[in-house]
Automatic annotation (TrEMBL):
<keyword id="KW-0694">RNA-binding</keyword>
<dbReference type="InterPro" id="IPR050343">
    <property type="entry name" value="RsuA_PseudoU_synthase"/>
</dbReference>
<feature type="domain" description="RNA-binding S4">
    <location>
        <begin position="45"/>
        <end position="114"/>
    </location>
</feature>
<protein>
    <submittedName>
        <fullName>RNA pseudouridine synthase</fullName>
    </submittedName>
</protein>
<dbReference type="InterPro" id="IPR002942">
    <property type="entry name" value="S4_RNA-bd"/>
</dbReference>
<dbReference type="InterPro" id="IPR036986">
    <property type="entry name" value="S4_RNA-bd_sf"/>
</dbReference>
<dbReference type="Pfam" id="PF01479">
    <property type="entry name" value="S4"/>
</dbReference>
<dbReference type="GO" id="GO:0003723">
    <property type="term" value="F:RNA binding"/>
</dbReference>
Length: 145
């Protein structure tokens, strides 16, 4: 199924014949899908989000570091949490460490086998889905959802 281009409301009959508004959608044309995909990836983001995207810390922790003058953008120290940065062009560093460009998030789906737990570790030593994924070499930066 493609991207949904438009969500609108149309009149329709509800329960007991009462006139209601019903939601309908239609699929996007290839041109609409391209333009929607371009607009979905913002080129500028807030500084705290950029730091969190690098995997260094959470967004809240990033805001604390910004307020404590630990963050520089293009060589200038900033303490303003509302600062926006260009993801592709601005150089952001935290405590002198330059943040690398982030990779796109990859979503993995694994089917749970009967008897496995969906948790990173089990104190009772029962089998977990991550035990199986470790054998396959796939557990780095993975979390259950």
């Amino acid at each position: 199924m493609g991207l949904l281009a438009k969500v609108a409301w149309r009149p329709g009959l509800g329960r007991r014949g009462v006139l209601t508004l019903k939601k309908f959608t239609r699929e996007a044309t290839p041109e609409q899908a391209k333009s929607m995909a371009k607009s979905a990836a913002p080129s500028t983001v807030r500084l705290a989000k950029r730091i969190a995207m690098s995997g260094l810390c959470s967004r809240r922790e990033a805001e604390k570091r910004i307020r404590s003058f630990d963050v520089t953008v293009n060589g200038r120290v900033t303490a303003d949490v509302a600062t926006t940065v260009d993801v592709a062009n601005d150089v952001v560093s935290v405590d002198g460490r330059v943040l690398t460009r982030t990779q796109k998030v990859k979503v993995w789906m694994a089917h749970k086998i009967k008897g496995e737990l969906v948790t990173n570790s089990d104190p009772q030593g029962r089998a977990t889905i991550f035990d199986r994924l470790r054998v396959m070499g796939l557990t780095q930066h993975m979390m259950p959802v």
